Write a sequence for this structure.
C-alpha cells in the first residue's frame, strides 16, 4: 500500500432515510488489487454502503473517489462509464428469471452489443465453466437451479464483463458451509484471475477471512476498525471482538438493551 | 385533540399526494418516451412485449368483442322496436363498436391481463434486485424494461381493436341475421354505408392512447413497488385499477375532442 493511491476512497459518506441515519461519515480506502471485506451487524448499513458506491443510491453528502475521480460530481454519462467498470454479485443472485442461464451470464455482452448472440453464448458457457458449471446448465432457467448453482451463475455473470472492481453482497448467505467455501474459493480465483479490486460485505467470519486481505467493521454508520483479515478475530477492539466471536455480552448488546 | 384545521390538513395532504403522484408519473412517462428515440433500442424486448400484448390478448379481446356485438344487437332491437326503428340496428352496432365499445372494452380487458402481468413482472424484478442488476450490467432499466413496452402497447392495442371492431360487427351481424331475421346483404350494406373513416380513426386513436396508458401504469406501478410479495400484489392491483380509471377518463376526453371536430 505504502503511499499508493486507493482504487476507492470514501470520505465522510453520509446517508439517511427520514430520521434514521444509516451512514454517518464513513471513511474507507480500498487499495488496488486488494480484497476488502466490510463486516457489521444486520441493518448496520453495509448494503447501503455498497449501493452508494455503485450509484444505485445517492448519498446525502461526502465523497466517493474511484481512480481519482469523485463520482458524485461527475456528469451522468461519465458516472455510467465508471459504473461499467464495476461488477456486482447480489445477495440473492438477482438472476433474470425470464432468461436462460447462458443469457444471464452473457447479458452484459449482449446489452452492450459487444458480441453476436452466438458468440455471446459461447462466452457465457466459457464463464460457466470458470465457476465449475457444465455448458449444458446454460440451457436451464434460474428457477431450475439450486441456491449454490444460482450463486455460481451470478458470479459468472459478474465476472463476464471482466470488471476492474468487484462487489460481493453476502456471497455465502443461505449456503451450507461446504458450498460457502466453494463460492469463496471461486471468488478469490476470479478476482485474482482478473486482477480486480474487490469489496465484499458479509456476516460470515469464515468467509470474511477466506476472501479478504483487509477487514473493516461498520458500526453505528462509521468504520470503527479496519485491519488485516488475519487479525480480525483478535482485533483488540471490543465492538469487533464481540461481533466476530458472536458474544452476547459486550458494547453492541448493551446498546440493544437501551 | 382534534383541531379545526385537521380536515383542511387532510385535504392538503391528499392534494400534495395527488400532485406528487401526477408529477412522478409524468416524469416517468417522459423519461420512458425519451428512451424510444435514444439508442440503443431493445428490439427483442419490443418484439416479446408486442407478442405478449397483441397476440396473447387476442382470445380474450375477440370473445369480448363478439359477445358485445351480439348483446348490442339484441338490446338495440329491444329498444328500437318500440319506435319501429329496427332498421337502424346495423348503424348503431357499427358506430358503437368502432367509436366506443371496441377500444374501451379491448382496453379494459388488456388492462386486466397485461397491466397486471407487467406490474407483477417488473415489481418482482424490483424486489429481487433484478432492476439493480440491470444497472450494474450497463443497461438502463427504463430503456430495457419500460420503453419497449410503451411502444408495444401503443402499437398492439390499435391492432387488437381493428380485430375487435370486425368481430364485434360480426357478432351483431350473426344475431341480426340468424336470430332477428334481417337480410344479410342489406345489413352489411347498411353497416358499410353508414361507417365513415373518422369513426374508425377515432377508435384507433383512442386505442393507441389506451395502450400507452395501460403499459405506462403497469411499468410505473411495478417499477416503484416496494416491500416484497405484498408490495408486488399492491402494485398489480394499483396498475389495473389506475389503468382502468385512466381509460375511462381519457375516453371521455378523447370523445370530447373528436366530438368537437
Amino acid at each position: 500500500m505504502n503511499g499508493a493511491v486507493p482504487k476507492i476512497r470514501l470520505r465522510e459518506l453520509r446517508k439517511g432515510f427520514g430520521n434514521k441515519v444509516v451512514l454517518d461519515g464513513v471513511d474507507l480506502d480500498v487499495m488496488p488489487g486488494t480484497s476488502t471485506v466490510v463486516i457489521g451487524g444486520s441493518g448496520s448499513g453495509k448494503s447501503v454502503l455498497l449501493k452508494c458506491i455503485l450509484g444505485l443510491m445517492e448519498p446525502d453528502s461526502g465523497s466517493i473517489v474511484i481512480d481519482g475521480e469523485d463520482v458524485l460530481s461527475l456528469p451522468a454519462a461519465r458516472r455510467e462509464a465508471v459504473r461499467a467498470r464495476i461488477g456486482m454479485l447480489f445477495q440473492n443472485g438477482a438472476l433474470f428469471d425470464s432468461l436462460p442461464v447462458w443469457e444471464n451470464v452473457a447479458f452484459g455482452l449482449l446489452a452492450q452489443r459487444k458480441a453476436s448472440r452466438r458468440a455471446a453464448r459461447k462466452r457465457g458457457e466459457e464463464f460457466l465453466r470458470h465457476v465449475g458449471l457444465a455448458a449444458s446448465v446454460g440451457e436451464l432457467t434460474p428457477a431450475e437451479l439450486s441456491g449454490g448453482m444460482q450463486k455460481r451463475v451470478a458470479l459468472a455473470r459478474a465476472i463476464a464483463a471482466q470488471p476492474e472492481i468487484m462487489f460481493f453482497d453476502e456471497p455465502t448467505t443461505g449456503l451450507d458451509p461446504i458450498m460457502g467455501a466453494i463460492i469463496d474459493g471461486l471468488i478469490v480465483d476470479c478476482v485474482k484471475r482478473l486482477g480486480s479490486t474487490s469489496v465484499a460485505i458479509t456476516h460470515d467470519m469464515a468467509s470474511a477471512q477466506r476472501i479478504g486481505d483487509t477487514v473493516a467493521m461498520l458500526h453505528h454508520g462509521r468504520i470503527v476498525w479496519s485491519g488485516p483479515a488475519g487479525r480480525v478475530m483478535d482485533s483488540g477492539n471490543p465492538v469487533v471482538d464481540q461481533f466476530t466471536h458472536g458474544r452476547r455480552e459486550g458494547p453492541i448488546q448493551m446498546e440493544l438493551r437501551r | 385533540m382534534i383541531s379545526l384545521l385537521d380536515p383542511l390538513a387532510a385535504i392538503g395532504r391528499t392534494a400534495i399526494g395527488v400532485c406528487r403522484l401526477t408529477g412522478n408519473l409524468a416524469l416517468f412517462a417522459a423519461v420512458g418516451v425519451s428512451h424510444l428515440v435514444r439508442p440503443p433500442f431493445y428490439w427483442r424486448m419490443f418484439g416479446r412485449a408486442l407478442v405478449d400484448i397483441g397476440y396473447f390478448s387476442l382470445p380474450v379481446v375477440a370473445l369480448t368483442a363478439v359477445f358485445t356485438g351480439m348483446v348490442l344487437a339484441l338490446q338495440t332491437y329491444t329498444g328500437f322496436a318500440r319506435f319501429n326503428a329496427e332498421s337502424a340496428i346495423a348503424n348503431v352496432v357499427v358506430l358503437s363498436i368502432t367509436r366506443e365499445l371496441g377500444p374501451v372494452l379491448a382496453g379494459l380487458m388488456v388492462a386486466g391481463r397485461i397491466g397486471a402481468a407487467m406490474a407483477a413482472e417488473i415489481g418482482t424484478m424490483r424486489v429481487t434486485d433484478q432492476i439493480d442488476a440491470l444497472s450494474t450490467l450497463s443497461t438502463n432499466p427504463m430503456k430495457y424494461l419500460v420503453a419497449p413496452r410503451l411502444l408495444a402497447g401503443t402499437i398492439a392495442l390499435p391492432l387488437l381493436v381493428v380485430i375487435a371492431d370486425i368481430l364485434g360487427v360480426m357478432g351483431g351481424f350473426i344475431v341480426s341475421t340468424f336470430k332477428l331475421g334481417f337480410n344479410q346483404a342489406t345489413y352489411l350494406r347498411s353497416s358499410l354505408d353508414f361507417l365513415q373513416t373518422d369513426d374508425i380513426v377515432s377508435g384507433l386513436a383512442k386505442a393507441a392512447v389506451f395502450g400507452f396508458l395501460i403499459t405506462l401504469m403497469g411499468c410505473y406501478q411495478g417499477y416503484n413497488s416496494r416491500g416484497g410479495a405484498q408490495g408486488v400484489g399492491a402494485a398489480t392491483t394499483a396498475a389495473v385499477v389506475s389503468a382502468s380509471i385512466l381509460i375511462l377518463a381519457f375516453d371521455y376526453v378523447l370523445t370530447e375532442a373528436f366530438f368537437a371536430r
